[in-house]
């Protein structure tokens, strides 16, 4: 890419403080447009643990791009995630969904800019709505593994923010009420709760889970809140959905494992896929 048309290779390093992360997002969006043949995308989805198969039910995949081919993106670092992004037709509406098969987690140590780069790229690609999904631990014993739960609000316990400088972004109704209502119109049994992000990658201790509960949390995990904040800064509507893959530490007497997360996601894939495809079609 020439200097006249956009950022040069030298200043696409998100870890460099002198780099403008929004310039990198625009460069990434330009590559996505070129490789997909789509001038713009309308909705973006980030598929977390347990949600990997759901993109297949949204519509026909028209293009698949390896993350390593797009500025600012990297290969998947977590088992159960896909290191590609897809351009998917939303039924026969003529609209496109940009489906990310993985995310960069804060615990990977790549910095918060890398964590929210997919969100900023989605906005630069034309998306006005983003669906953030994750696999998480549940604090409500009634939420069996495989239960999808809408995110109503969050507690960000990472001690950081993706917003740089004196930019004071209002997070009231961060998780768009209209989209939660839309999801419930598709699946009236959907419950909702407050998602709590810890830094990870270790699972929470029983005492930390109880702390989250006292603070008002219902779901615990290691992603999503930083992405949601960046999405609001970018002007995107946000729908957050957690898949309860296990009861959080201390809620159940069973030990926690990532294999359990993957198994619960596979078992719930069809329900989650139908839910997302129906919601995306109506956004």
Structure description:
This protein has 283 residues and is α/β, with parallel strands linked by helices. The protein is 29% helix and 22% strand. It is built from six helices and nine strands. Strands 5-8-7-6-9 form a five-stranded mixed β-barrel, surrounded by four helices.
* Shape descriptor: globular
Q: What would the average pLDDT be, to the nearest integer?
A: 88
Termini distance? 34 Å
In CATH, the homologous superfamily goes by the name Nucleoside phosphorylase domain
- Indicate the percent of residues in helices: 25-40%
Structural class: alpha/beta
Count the E strands. 9
Q: What Rg do the Cα atoms give?
A: 18 Å
Strand order of the largest sheet: 5-8-7-6-9
- Please name the CATH architecture: 3-Layer(aba) Sandwich
| CATH topology label | Rossmann fold
Number of helices: 6
Overall tally of structural domains: 1
**String of helices and strands:** HEEEEHEEHEHEHEH
- Broad CATH class: Alpha Beta
Percent in strands: 15-25%
Q: Would you identify the regions where 5 or more consecutive residues have pLDDT less than 50? A: 1-10
Largest sheet: 5 strands, mixed, barrel
InterPro entries: Nucleoside_phosphorylase_d, Nucleoside_phosphorylase_sf, PUNP, Purine_phosphorylase
Domain Nucleoside phosphorylase: 43-281
EC number: 2.4.2.1
GO molecular function: purine-nucleoside phosphorylase activity
